[in-house]
Amino acid sequence: MFLKMGRRAVLGGIAALSMLAAPTVAQESYEPGRLTIVVPFNPGGSADRMARAIAQFLPEELGVPVTVMNRPGGSGALGHTYFLQQPDDGSVALVSPINPYLISNILRGQGMLDWDKFHFINGQWQDYYVILVNKDQPFQTGQELIDFIKENPGEASSAIINGDGGHLATVVMLERLGLPADAVNFISYDGGAPMRTALAGNQVTFSVISALGSSVIAEDVRPLAVIKEQPDERWAAPNINEVLANYDVEIPLLAADLRTFTVHQSFFENHPETYEQLKDAYRRMLEREDFKAFIAEGQIGGQWMGPEATAASLNQSYEVFEQYIDALQ
């Protein structure tokens, strides 16, 4: 069951509390003296909410102020590039859905980006995709939506972040159904928050969007299918390939956003003691009961995967994107 909270209350509370992020428990001195978290999307989106939760609680473990800086643009490319241009001394970190946005940025040649210059401390919030429509739309099932698209090419609109996994999944689905990409009118947004606003306001027909990150608009939308092996009680809808079986086709089940706490690879290599200090403080923060309560209330993920498992998951997603990225060209 979803926790019934107003979107503005949840997002406003996270933003307000993050402003109070001053250290209250002194730890061993963190040499950079501060930490700025770059978020490559607008305020209010899932990555921003996660970053502001970290900024609220990490100072008590790290012993220095933590602030959030939003650098939106180019489906994440501007913020990812900006992050790499910052000092690699541990004073700057990145919170971003590395899968799919950084992966897509690199494979599509957006920004001056190099996969090997990023070091992923932890995949904190793994998501999956769900096909959502506003409750005022007439579609009750995924088959009804697909039939409408087939019979009325170009009339259905879809909210996307250009080049993300939801966009790619939709284009691959159209291709498997024998439809051109322009059978859907894609409307691009620069971040999950404006996409969800468009869905909640019935400004678009549908969206293939991150499921857990969209819990804040649950009262406004209807799920038609999930892109996930097993159904999820959060969104009562069938697997997309069960829907597509009516047309004798299926699509790959692309993994959705893995929102990751990231630093420079050169910071990891050249400042090992400071790196370990940051990693350990961050992990202690994840284990705090007050932090767990805070993210549960805000419906924000808080898992510990660790650097090795996070890198393995992201490298696997990178390989999958490489196979299908040409569908977006």
Automatic annotation (TrEMBL):
On whether Transmembrane is a keyword of this UniProt record, the answer is no
Which InterPro entries does its entry note? BUG, Bug_dom1
Q: Any keyword Signal? A: yes
Could you tell me the keywords of this UniProt record? Signal
Transmembrane feature ranges: none
Q: Which residues form the signal peptide?
A: 1-26
What family is this protein classified in?
Belongs to the UPF0065 (bug) family.
Q: What is this protein called?
A: Tripartite tricarboxylate transporter substrate binding protein
